[in-house]
């Protein structure tokens, strides 16, 4: 079950990173709509929280 969680987290990170790059590219061409801007911000927050929680789980497993 833990391997499935790690696989899904990796897939989530890859998809989020793709959307982040996509919105960044669109932002250069035109102004983002309100919904696109909210998704852009939430993607940044989600990537940060996912990486932080994974790091904390990793440290807890190794040093706990």
Structure explained in plain terms:
The protein is an all-alpha fold and 64 residues long. Helix content is 91%, strand content 0%. Helix 1 (2-29) runs antiparallel to helix 2 (34-63). The longest helix is centred in the last third of the chain and has 30 residues, at 34-63. The protein starts with a helix and ends with a helix.
Would you kindly provide a brief summary of this structure?
Helices cover about 90% and strands about 0% of the residues. The protein has helices at about 1-30, 35-64.
Task: Show the helix and strand layout.
Layout: H1 2-29, H2 34-63
Helical amount: over 70%
Biggest sheet overview:
none
Please state the CA-atom Rg, rounded to the nearest Å: 15 Å
Q: Care to count the β-strands?
A: 0
Averaged pLDDT, please? 83
Strand content: under 5%
CA distance, first residue to last residue: 21 Å
Give unreliable regions as ranges: none
Overall, the morphology is elongated
Task: Please give a handful of descriptors for the protein shown.
single chain, 64 residues, mainly alpha, 2 helices, 91% helix
